[in-house]
């Protein structure tokens, strides 16, 4: 390979190289300008894709029914986002089908952030284990974009139940297989899997009774058949205030401010390691530009700080969340491992 001419090279070499060096400098300058222009264009696109959002009305598809707690708080959040974004934000209720009706509706939306999806942690973490043949992984189709809230559950029994605490319930369940029944709002719901968790830890075999409607569930619990169920405050507060059910315990490690006299599971004689809760978040179909997802996340977190929103959440004992999208994914992964174990142990399938 020939060496570059040195400073002592013959004069005619300098005459030959001078124009080449000038051409090389001009080429490098042109390349730098082109690269700089491309970088500026990319930056402008990234900034513009967020600043231009939303450019049309936004729809939030939800798997929850009209009038439910998640629906009520979503509508308030949607109104606040609409005011901030200067675009309408519509809630589209698509309950049923184990969440797949809402999932399929949102899946058809363009990957531009104008179609969002409200799901709970069970839609993210339990569905893949309940519907194995579908081979559907929620977080392979959707990206989390913002957290909303986490809700605790309570152990509800009829007002006239002989059980005074969780120790009494567990002792009754240990009398034999199926000695105690519990209800839930569907196979694979937190109410069902929470009961399976208690069975696993306590070595019991309680009978699960699924209901199609939450209202039917708590009416039946009030009548003593099934003997108990897990309940959230928004789903059970009406019948609780009517004096037809009472709460034995919060199904977790912490008391809740709305019911300060209700003990935790451990305080009531139950297993300390059981913590039944559910978190709800917003998702978008994969492909939405990162700046748009980041804007939605930031704007939702701002809305969740507003006093009116916090007051509404507090009514339902919903804990507002400020998680990053990475934390949503991590929490979903933890629940997925829990649900995989429970679903396999109980041989639950919804195929």
Question: How would you briefly describe this protein structure?
Answer:
The protein has 351 residues and is α/β, with parallel strands linked by helices. It has 13 helices and eleven strands. The protein has two domains: 58-150 and 278-346, 3-Layer(aba) Sandwich (D-Maltodextrin-Binding Protein, domain 2); 154-250, 3-Layer(aba) Sandwich (D-Maltodextrin-Binding Protein, domain 2), CATH 3.40.190.10.
What is the CATH architecture annotation of the largest domain?
3-Layer(aba) Sandwich
Question: What is the residue-mean pLDDT, rounded to a whole number?
Answer: 89
| Order of strands across the main sheet | 2-1-3-10-4-11
**Structural class label:** alpha/beta
Number of E-state strands: 11
CATH class assignment of the largest domain: Alpha Beta
Give the count of structural domains. 2
Rg over C-alpha atoms, rounded to the nearest angstrom? 28 Å
Write a structural description.
By secondary structure, the chain is α/β, with parallel strands linked by helices. It folds into 2 domains: 58-150 and 278-346, Bordetella uptake gene, domain 1 (D-Maltodextrin-Binding Protein, domain 2); 154-250, D-Maltodextrin-Binding Protein, domain 2, CATH 3.40.190. Helix content is 47%, strand content 17%. The protein has 13 helices and 11 strands. The strands form 2 sheets. A 6-stranded mixed beta sheet has the order 2-1-3-10-4-11, with helices on both faces. Strand 1, helix 2 (69-85) and strand 2 form a beta-alpha-beta unit. Helix 2 (69-85) packs across helix 11 (290-304) and helix 8 packs across helix 13 (325-346). The chain is globular and about 65 Å long.
């Amino acid at each position: 390979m020939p060496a570059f001419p040195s400073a002592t090279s013959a004069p005619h070499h300098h005459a030959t190289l001078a124009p080449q060096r000038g051409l090389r400098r001009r080429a490098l300058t042109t390349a730098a300008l082109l690269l700089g222009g491309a970088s500026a264009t990319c930056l402008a696109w990234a900034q513009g894709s967020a600043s231009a959002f939303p450019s049309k009305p936004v729809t939030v598809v939800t798997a929850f029914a009209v009038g439910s707690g998640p629906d009520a708080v979503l509508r308030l959040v949607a109104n606040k986002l609409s005011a901030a974004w200067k675009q309408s934000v519509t809630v589209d209720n698509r309950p049923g089908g184990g969440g797949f009706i809402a999932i399929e509706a949102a899946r058809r939306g363009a990957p531009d952030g104008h179609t969002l999806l409200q799901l709970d942690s069970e839609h993210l973490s339990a569905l893949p284990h309940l519907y194995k043949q579908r081979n559907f992984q929620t977080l392979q189709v959707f990206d989390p974009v913002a957290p909303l809230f986490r809700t605790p559950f309570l152990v509800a029994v009829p007002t006239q139940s002989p059980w005074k605490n969780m120790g009494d319930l567990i002792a009754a369940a240990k009398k034999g297989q199926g000695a105690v029944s519990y209800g839930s709002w569907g196979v694979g719901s937190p109410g069902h899997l929470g009961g399976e968790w208690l069975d696993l830890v306590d070595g019991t075999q309680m009978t699960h009774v699924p209901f199609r409607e939450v209202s039917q569930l708590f009416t039946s619990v009030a009548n003593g058949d099934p003997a108990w169920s897990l309940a959230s405050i928004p789903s059970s507060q009406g019948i609780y205030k009517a004096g037809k059910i009472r709460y034995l315990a919060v199904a977790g490690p912490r008391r809740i401010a709305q019911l300060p006299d209700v003990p935790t599971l451990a305080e009531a004689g139950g297993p300390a390691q059981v913590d039944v809760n559910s978190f709800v978040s917003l998702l978008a179909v994969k492909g939405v530009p990162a700046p748009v997802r980041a804007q939605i996340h930031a704007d939702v977190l701002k809305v969740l700080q507003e006093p009116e929103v916090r007051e509404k959440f507090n009514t339902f004992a919903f804990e507002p969340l400020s998680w990053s999208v990475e934390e949503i994914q991590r929490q979903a992964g933890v629940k997925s491992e829990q649900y995989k174990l429970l679903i396999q142990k109980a041989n639950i399938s919804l195929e």
